[in-house]
Amino acid sequence: MCLAIPGKILEINGLNKTALVDFDGLKQQIIIALIQEPKIGNYVIVHAGYAIEQMNETDALEAIEQWKKIADDQDLDLSELI
Questions:
Q1: Average pLDDT, the chain
Q2: Alpha-carbon distance 2 to 40, whole Å?
Q3: pLDDT in tens, 39-54
Q4: Which of 5, 36, 69, 81 is the most exposed place for a label (fewest CB within 10 A)?
């Protein structure tokens, strides 16, 4: 199964094409080499440690809420899905 979780870019390191991304409180370094013009504050879809697509804030926040509901329904910690 493939999961892609949205997160918000907090910091960008252009030298090694990575970013610190916030997944509703869980912060991780991810690779941003696959997306064009990443910016701090933008939301990205992340799979296997790579940002694979940018998305607008409204859609990202809605997806995050849906992931929270799925995690709650399955008695999982959302951080286990990231």
A1: 89
A2: 26
A3: 999 999 999 899 999 9
A4: 36
Distance between CA atoms of 22 and 36, rounded to whole angstroms? 19
Residue with token string 């910016």: 39
Residue carrying the six token digits 């929270």: 68
User: Rounded to whole angstroms, how far apart are CA atoms 55 and 71?
Assistant: 22
Question: Which region among 9-13, 14-18, 19-23 has the lowest average model confidence (pLDDT)?
Answer: 14-18
Which CATH number applies to 5-81? 2.30.30.140
Q: How far apart are CA 62 and CA 12, in angstroms?
A: 24
Token pair in block for residue 4: 């892609």
